[in-house]
Amino acid sequence: MDIANTALPTVLVVDDEVRSQDAMRRTLDEDFAVLTAGGAAEARAVLEQQEVSVILCDQRMPGLSGVAFLKEVRERWPDTVRIIISGYTDAEDLITGINEAGIYQYILKPWIPNHLLAAVRNAVEAQGLQRDTNRLHLELRSSTPVLRERAASNLAQARQAFDFGRIERAPGSPLDAVCELAARVARYDLSALVLGESGSGKELLARAMHYASPRAGKAFVMENCAAMPDSLLESELFGHKRGAFTGAFEDHPGLFQRANGGTVFLDEIGETSPAFQVRLLRVLQEREVRPVGGVRAVPVDVRVIAATHRDLEQRVRDGLFREDLYYRIAGVTLTVPPLRERVGDIAPIALRLLGDVASEFGRIGPSFSEETLGVLMAYPWPGNVRELRNEIARAVALSEGEKIGAQAFSARVLQGQAAGGLDTAELKGGGIGIPQSGTLAERLDAIEAMILRETLLRLRWNKTRTAKELGLSRVGLRAKMARLGLQG
Questions:
Q1: pLDDT at 432
Q2: What's the CA gap between 140 and 128, in Å, rounded?
Q3: Which residues belong to any copy of the Response regulatory domain (predicted)?
Q4: Which helix (H) or strand (E) holds 57?
Q5: Which of 112, 132, 155 is the last residue of a domain?
Q6: What is the pLDDT at residue 421?
Q7: pLDDT at residue 147 is higher than 50
Q8: Which of 196, 237, 311, 441 meets the CB 3.0–4.6 Å disulfide criterion with 336?
């Protein structure tokens, strides 16, 4: 048993398998303080000493089952949000336990890291909203000015935290145009489709749109549509009524109802089945949900932002995605470029992540060497920002001194860097390609910057070798680098 001492929301993982505990800790520890327990007895001891926001509990454990333990938690620690993880595939059995224990959400094994992280984020946000609602109701009874001031302050903080300017990028990044378009459409009630590879930052863009919109004062909720079968996804999004199936002992409002007035972010919508697409299309067209087992439809007012790594237009042509639903969700389409197509963003993102990781690990002031930044900028990052963060966390853990050298990164990164460097298209994606307008001098400077950066990256920022290859002195190379705004 361990006790958290942090300002981050605390998540308690209850699982008798150490490997499962470690996997969930790695998935969650960027955003949460993660505690672990091997069973019900150990978890009770944690709860008696530590305030916990969310419990992630495995269903099958020696002694007390997950559902049985969470029934006890519901009685003794009702404010804690309860999530069950199970390998069962029988939806009715799962939902029976969920209703008995008042479980917020269930996650089927094998769980997907993105879905697990999204579920916990939603749970923490739901808990915070409930606490805020209770507090504001008390304030409303006593002092309306206090209520207004508190609500305005909370909204201002959220807008600042998720502002488009907080999406880390370099000057001239391809993300500038994406963020500019997203900011323009955010204030209008258009549906949006965000395209991009896994880990490229689609959720961050969706949150920024929510907090830049008139809906910012309401909830932002998200669901990974690829993570569960249709029956569970419908119950999670649209809710179900008491008695709808065996074990449905109470009404369960879906995410659309919880987000009423706000934004629903549907990640990986391209993975949904045609049958579910029909149900979702009806909800979007009629602006109402019919909970499973319900007779009456419930009006909902939400903005939907959907995301996928798939080519939805191709899936429409292949008959795998409904054309009418595609046009319904694609009021505006935003494409987040992968990290390899915006090389100039790698350095500022890496430095931001380094600060975050160092703070989490209790390290003071680590920095990257010039060689390290060159290696990071030369690797294609197929896992995008998520992979970059994992590599930086590894490097911080393996480095003792203040300077983090390239040798602290995995062989995959070092070999990928050495294998090929960058082509012209990738360099253009980094914000330093040839501009399509401007004076001759400006365009020649852009070409010179591209050649200099390509050579520096290929030679791992060795200035002596770079100067020799380009026929320059070291002083001349440094002068050009300073004039063209190249770091190092």
A1: 39
A2: 18
A3: 10-124
A4: strand 54-58
A5: 112
A6: 42
A7: no
A8: 196
For residues 103 and 220, membership in a common domain is answered with no
Structure token pair of residue 324: 């009418």
Residue partners of 77: CB distance under 8 A and separation at least 6: 47, 52
Element (H, E) at 194: strand 192-195
Residue 275 neighbours by CB under 8 Å, 6+ apart: 230
Q: 60 with 86: CB under 8 angstroms? A: yes
Measured distance CA(283)–CA(285) in Å, rounded: 6
Both 372 and 467 in a single domain?
A: yes
d(Cα 137, Cα 135) in Å, to the nearest integer?
5
Amino acid at 183: A
Residue 344 tokens, joined: 């100039």
Residue numbers of the domain that contains 313: 143-337
Average pLDDT of the residues in 113-142:
68
Which residue type, as a one-letter code, is found at position 357? V
**Quick one: 328 and 380 in the same domain?**
no
Q: Would you state the pLDDT for residue 4? A: 52
* Within a domain: 310: yes
Are 176 and 279 part of one and the same domain?
yes
Of 145, 141, 161, 303, which Cα lies nearest the Cα of 218? 303
Location of structure tokens 């992979």: 387
- Domain match, 326 and 450 both: no
Domain boundary among 62, 91, 112: 112
Same domain, 190 and 212: yes
Same-domain pairing of 76 and 167 = no
| Residue 441: pLDDT over 50 | yes
Q: Are residues 192 and 49 in the same domain?
A: no
d(CA 22, CA 27): 9
Write the pLDDT tens digit of every residue in 407-439: 888 888 887 654 444 443 333 334 334 455 667
Which ranges in 330-383 belong to alpha helices (H)?
A: 346-361, 370-378
Taking 80 as the threshold, does the pLDDT of residue 102 lie above it? Answer: no
- Give pLDDT tens digits for 66-101: 888 888 888 888 778 777 777 654 445 555 556 667
- Contact in structure between 298 and 288 (CB atoms under 8 Å): yes
Classified as helix, coil or strand, 292 is: strand
pTM value? 0.61
Dig out the tokens for 452 from the structure. Answer: 């200099």
What letter does residue 73 receive in the DSSP assignment?
H
Split into its structural domains, the chain has a count of 3
Compute CA distances 324 → 274, 279, 321, whole Å: 12, 12, 9
